[in-house]
Amino acid sequence: MSGMLDKAGKAGCDIVCLPEGWPTCDTGLGMQKTEANTLEGSASIMMSRKAKEYGMYIVSGLYNWEGDTLKNVAVLYGRTGKIEGIYEKVQLPDSETEGGAVPGNKFPVFTTDFGKIGILICWDSAFPEISRILAINGAEILFCPVWGDVRDHDMWKLIARARAVDNGVYFVTNIFDGHSAIVNPAGEVLQESGTQGSLLVAEIDLNYNPQWYWLGNAGLGVWKTVWRKDRRSDVFSDLTK
């Protein structure tokens, strides 16, 4: 992964997304209590150094033990190498709860020097509410580190496109088995890969707001504005926490 971050840094990437829990994926260690599965471990130190070396942000999944408490997190490393934010996975699959992991219950949005980002992890993406809450809270790009899925690989592309279109945001997913994608707010796949060890790079424009004709609202409309205007928050509740 250090080598992949070198490639990303040399390519001039502003922000990089790595998979869920990658330091111990397929090692037999899983979520075990080991130094790699901590914010102070060798993997975290390496990412901090690479972020500082190349002046780029890094979003990375990690298993994080604090004392006897285990959480599945995604960490945002800033351009100086400091940790600028941590998202704690809200929707834990049975395999993680049975392994002792504790879920998070907050939906933070992090401000970078180019825009606002939200983070969700793997199983979170199966629950549209999480992406919607992050969008309501101001996220312009959603990053989704993933370990893997037993379903057909096209399912992940479908989910990524749906969440992007649902909310009028960019959606970036990095899956440990290699089926990763960068999707724009119109649901168009800008880059995708079906193999491990590949670097996907896309230049995005946060001012890009596709306009579509709507049956329910005559004339052109920018979706991320339309859904905010028409959404029945009195029925659906605020969902901003």
Properties at a glance:
single chain; 241 residues; alpha/beta; Nitrilase/N-carbamoyl-D-aminoacid amidohydrolase; six-stranded mixed β-sheet; four-stranded mixed β-sheet; globular
What does this structure look like?
With 241 residues, the protein is an alpha/beta fold. It has one domain (2-207): Nitrilase/N-carbamoyl-D-aminoacid amidohydrolase, CATH 3.60.110. The chain is built from 7 helices and 12 strands. The protein has helices spanning 2-10, 42-54, 94-97, 128-136, 154-167, 223-230, 233-236; strands spanning 15-17, 57-66, 69-77, 83-88, 109-111, 116-119, 141-146, 170-175, 179-183, 189-194, 211-213, 220-222. A hairpin with a 6-residue loop joins strand 11 and strand 12 (220-222). The model has no long low-confidence stretch (mean pLDDT 93).
List SSEs in N-to-C order: HEHEEEHEEHEHEEEEEHH
The helix count comes to 7
DSSP summary, beta strand count:
12
**CATH arch. level architecture:** 4-Layer Sandwich
Contiguous low-pLDDT stretches (5 residues minimum) are none
- Report the radius of gyration as a whole number of Å: 18 Å
Which fold does the CATH topology refer to? Answer: Nitrilase/N-carbamoyl-D-aminoacid amidohydrolase
Helix content: 25-40%
**Whole-Å distance between the termini?**
34 Å
Structural class: alpha/beta
